[in-house]
Amino acid sequence: MAEKYVARSSAIAARLLGGEMMVMSTADSTFFTLDEVASAIWQAADGRTPLSEIVAGKICQEFDVDREQAQRDAARFVDELSQHGILLVSDQPLMESSPSPESR
Amino acid sequence: MSLLAEMNQKALTLGLPISVHFDITYRCNERCVHCYLDHDDHGEMTTAEIADVLTQLADVGVFFLSLSGGEVLMRRDFFEIVERARQLLFNVKVKTNGVMIHEKEAARLRQLGVEQVQISVYSHRPQVHDVITKLPGSLKRTIRAIRFLKSQGLKVSIANVLMAGNFSDQAGVITLARELGVAYTLDPTITPRMDGDTSILALRIPGSDVKHVFHSQELVGNVEEFCAPPPVPGEDIMEGFPCSAGHTACYISPYGDVFPCVQFPLPSGNVRRQKFLEIWRHSPQLQEVRSIRARDLPTCSTCAHVGTCTRCPGLAYVEGNMRGPSTADCEKSFQRTGIPSANMLAGAHGSTMGQLIQIQAAG
Does the beta carbon of A22 lie under 8 angstroms from any beta carbon of chain B? Predict the structure, then answer.
């Protein structure tokens, strides 16, 4: 399967509130809240790290999850957010990713 | 409960602000007859000061940021401020009259990822709108701006302040909003000027017109439900608080003064002298606002409308007592349901409007 690279879109508003990430698409005003695992993927989505590496190197290390299940869940999560323009997905590394609230 | 309501509840539980209304200038190119502001510049915050405040707001968790005025585009650094706000990932709403928005400005707002633009329109006819704004040609320019913003794919809404002078044009503005493909909101609230001048209250629409608005299916949806008699309030209502002002939201003036809300001129601190978080957590004024529950309201706690009234504590404060009734909301509750408020029954309706409090710099 081809690698997926994910980056945070700049067309979003986001803020961490009590451990949950609030994310809103400024394009269609869709509002999401991301739990801890989803927030971790979203924050690691720098456009350069392959999704499989984010899952293996970050999600499976930090959370008690099965690797194959985590890969499937991450792919579904990325698909859904990309449909609303919140995450950008490519089979090539992406040059830019918006800042994440924690990385400021 | 919607996701947004859940996050509001979470912010409330955590004691964090989630929304801030930030007036970045009081200067304006219009001179609306109902405006409560003093349009002179008495020392607005600089670009750097505003950037610092925005960083502080992002750090404490503010998500929704309304940039307003005055006319926001009167500031030469307006786009610099929006750019900074968007770098900090705020959900940015801009309130403007649109007069200075052309193709280039609309494109820039879109590029920066502004979520929504709210534009004031008082009539579909220039002979009414331009008389209210006192700026000839303003309606034409405002409508042109709406078209530019729409062509960029931005979400736009028209805000119409209802007054005696434009009430009959309300249907025309709704039709205009439909033609332009934008949302429509109305507000029948006129507030006293910042200098305490109450003469503009004469612009308010009479109660019979308020009743007409509340019984319009087009405006309120299910009229029977909207105008239903209030249910008997339960304990949860009596333990509830009036609105988000000071709880999950606040207002910042161009001079750095912090208030519970744009309609609640209780000076609570100044970000030029203190950190925002210090004001938010420790301001005695905000703490007092937060301490008030429905059961603490001497008149309103005995009122049939206590659980459904839109009582504005800011307007009550302007009338002399933040725990007292807001007579404009008593009127609304009455016109909506036909049931007089406790304040009206006590014969106090309108009697406190002489004790107005002016906005002043925080001590």
Answer: yes
